[in-house]
Amino acid sequence: MRRKAVGAPDAGTVVAAPPAIQTAAGGAESPSQAPPAAQTDTAPRVLRTEFPFQLPRGYVDEAGTVHRDGVMRLSTARDELIPLRDVRVQENPAYLSVVLLGRVITRLGTLPSVHDGTVENLFASDLAFLQDFYRQINAEGHTRAAVECPHCSEPFEVELGGSRLGES
């Protein structure tokens, strides 16, 4: 089964394989001069770095506004290492996910910024949802898979994590 990312947003999308192939010297080769392995896959690859989500309950801010729609970006090694130096994490390792999520959630509703204080005030069900969502996009890489119907050969996509992200 071949997987592919779908619906990548414009922001945060990186094209990993341009039409011309870069050589070690920095010049470009034409595709006909490329090694045979590179010729077999001519479609440009798109790396999806940001993933939209919708919280099951939503974050309620000080004014009582509920924020449910958000965006989480892929985590970097730095995102996972910096929280380990945080005193709160050293005193209580369970706090690691709060600090980590505060770093990788780039948008939540109309909030001007998202940080670990925001994540601390989420409902437990929303925190569990975000922890699962984080694992799906960072460990597994994709949340959808392209498949083909065995009867009619029609291509379609399936959600790997259940009907909604966060559900199994």
Describe the structure.
The chain has helices spanning 36-40, 77-81, 87-91, 96-104, 116-120, 124-140; strands spanning 13-15, 21-22, 28-29, 46-48, 50-60, 66-73, 105-108, 144-148, 155-159. The chain has 168 residues and is of the alpha+beta class. A three-stranded antiparallel beta sheet has the order 5-6-7. A two-stranded antiparallel sheet has the order 1-4. It has a two-stranded antiparallel ribbon with strand order 2-3. A hairpin with a 5-residue loop joins strand 5 and strand 6 (66-73).
Task: Please trace the helix and strand order, writing H or E for each element.
Answer: EEEHEEEHHHEHHEE
Helix content: 25-40%
Major sheet summary line:
3 strands, antiparallel
Taking the alpha carbons of the first and last residues, their distance comes to: 20 Å
Provide the low-confidence segments as ranges: 1-34, 162-168
Number of DSSP strands? Answer: 9
Q: Which structural class is indicated by helix and strand composition?
A: alpha+beta
Number of helical segments?
6
- The main sheet orders its strands as 5-6-7
Salient structural properties:
two-stranded antiparallel ribbon, 168 residues, disordered N terminus, alpha+beta, 26% strand, three-stranded antiparallel beta sheet, single chain
Short description:
This protein is an alpha+beta fold. The protein has helices at about 35-40, 75-80, 85-90, 95-105, 115-120, 125-140, and strands spanning about 15, 20, 30, 45-50, 50-60, 65-75, 105-110, 145-150, 155-160.
Helix-strand blueprint:
Blueprint: E1 13-15, E2 21-22, E3 28-29, H1 36-40, E4 46-48, E5 50-60, E6 66-73, H2 77-81, H3 87-91, H4 96-104, E7 105-108, H5 116-120, H6 124-140, E8 144-148, E9 155-159
